[in-house]
Amino acid sequence: MKKEDFKFDFKALERMEDNGIYFGDLNERDYHSLALFFWACSPQYTLDEILGALIGGLLPVTVAELMEQ
Questions:
Q1: What is the pLDDT of residue 39?
Q2: What's the total number of domains in the chain?
Q3: Contact 32, 51 (CB under 8 A)
Q4: Residues 6+ apart with CB under 8 A from 24
Q5: N or C, fewer C-beta in 10 Å, the chain?
Q6: Residue 34 contacts residue 53 (beta carbons within 8 Å)
Q7: What is the pLDDT of residues 35-62, one digit of tens each?
Q8: Residues 29, 5 contacting (CB under 8 angstroms)
Q9: Residue 21 reports pLDDT greater than 70
C-alpha cells in the first residue's frame, strides 16, 4: 500500500471533530476500533495496513466511498 493509494476526507474529519472525536486524542484502543471499522468496509486492505494508515494520519478511503459499499 502506497501513500498515493490513500484519500483523506477533510469534511469527514471536521464532522468527527464536531462530534468530539480528535485524532490527536485517540488512544491505542481507539485506533484499533477505527481500523476494524475501516477494514470491514474496505476488505481489500489488510488490518495492519489500515492501522498503519490511521496511525500515520491517513485514511484508506473517504467516508463517501464507505457509504457506497
A1: 72
A2: 1
A3: yes
A4: none
A5: C
A6: no
A7: 777 777 777 777 777 767 766 665 545 5
A8: no
A9: no
